[in-house]
Specification:
alpha/beta, three-stranded antiparallel beta sheet, Aspartate Aminotransferase, domain 2, seven-stranded mixed beta sheet, globular, 2 domains
């Protein structure tokens, strides 16, 4: 592993800002900003766009995303949001009445509402796995996967506190009961290493504006090869059809699609303004290496964890945390006073429920964590 140090100069972050809220939205890399400006300049001259420009950048981005998923680019679709990808999964999954959908406690809303709606349409049961401090979260999920399970819809780590889930163990159990596995990787893809081919879910989605370092409204979806032919896209998008690269034949209507997961691409996936920004973002992630990003951030969250190891209000769960997200209970601290201290010291974190969620990145240093801990007392 290689530790990534002093990377703040690569980001558009003022020197006096202590940004520990990456899980909310990533700050912008200077290279991403430059790519966006150049893209906007190019967009002002549409007469210079060629037929290939509608598809070429998408293939570059698809390949970059595939490298982070650790899969083939044929398995990656370009989507606008997590909810879009999960809606696509729900459209394709056919579960018998009476089966169950397994989710975890306090799951992010986008990965709950879709399954809540499906459960009502198909008369399915929602089973919510509680987080426990004396038990591994993975074990709690495994206990509920049985012959009655239809869908398991979970993240790689919890969005509030970073609690990890062993997806390889979950996948094995899901396959043994012939259920479907759908993953929301929005708080892990690009920062937590994953071998998606080994896990082999049916669908896996991730936004692009968090740990994937890109702009808002452009994300990614892994689609298992088993769905490439039989799966149905959410939209009736002209540019996903076979031969759509040839603009002279667009009205030669065809029922066939472009290869692989491309049939699931969102409408207007060319995204002339934001696509180059996403490419620049993933270029930087691949240059650093996801493993190195994770280990570098973990050095910082370990300082926080160690600081609270003897704090009675900080009940550390048995389930390990991902290295990039950690939550500290508000406890008996005065929240308004705490927010004032954060503001005075230009520290940015998230308040999630009864916890303070802290999510640093490679632009942070140990001095940032020291300032945070000083505010927390």
């Amino acid at each position: 592993m290689q530790n990534i140090n002093n990377a703040k100069y690569l980001f558009e972050i003022d020197n006096d800002i202590i940004y520990l809220n990456y899980a909310n939205m990533s700050p912008v890399l200077k290279s991403v900003k430059e790519a966006g400006i150049n893209a906007l300049e190019r967009r002002t001259r549409p007469w210079k766009l060629t037929d290939k420009d509608w598809f070429g950048d998408a293939e570059v981005l698809r390949k970059n995303a595939a490298n982070i998923f650790q899969t083939s680019e044929d398995n990656v679709a370009i989507i606008p949001s997590t909810s879009y990808g999960l809606a696509t999964a729900a459209k394709n999954i056919d579960v018998k009445t009476g089966k169950s959908i397994v989710v975890i406690e306090d799951q992010f809303p986008s990965n709950f509402y879709v399954w809540d709606d499906l459960s009502k349409k198909l008369d399915l049961k929602i089973i919510t796995i509680k987080k426990q401090y004396d038990k591994l979260l993975t074990d709690s999920i495994l206990e509920k996967i049985n012959s009655e399970t239809g869908i398991v819809a979970i993240p790689h780590c919890h969005w509030i506190d970073g609690l990890l889930i062993d997806l390889e163990r979950i996948s094995k159990a899901v396959k043994e009961v012939n259920a479907y596995l759908v993953l929301d990787l929005s708080q892990s893809l690009g920062v937590l290493p994953i071998d998606i081919n080994k896990i082999d879910p049916d669908f896996a989605v991730a936004v692009g504006y968090k740990w994937m370092l890109g702009p808002y409204s452009l994300g990614y979806m892994y689609v298992s090869p088993k769905w490439h032919n039989k799966g149905k896209p959410l939209e009736y998008n002209w540019s996903t059809r076979k031969g759509s690269e040839d603009f002279s034949k667009l009205t030669a209507y065809t029922p066939d699609y472009r290869t692989g997961a491309r049939k699931f691409d969102m409408g207007e996936f060319s995204q002339f303004n934001t696509m180059p920004m996403s490419i620049a973002a993933l270029d930087q992630i691949l240059k650093w290496g996801v493993e190195n990003i994770q280990s570098s951030i973990k050095v910082l969250t370990d300082i926080i964890s160690e600081n609270f190891s003897n704090d009675k209000t900080y009940q550390k769960p048995l389930t390990p945390n991902a290295g990039h997200i950690i939550a500290v209970p508000i406890g008996n601290r005065n929240l308004q006073s705490l927010k004032k201290k954060f503001s005075e010291n230009k520290i940015f974190v998230s308040i999630r429920g009864s916890s303070i969620r802290i999510s640093p990145h490679v632009y942070n240093q140990s001095s940032d964590i020291a300032n945070l801990l000083n505010c927390l007392g």
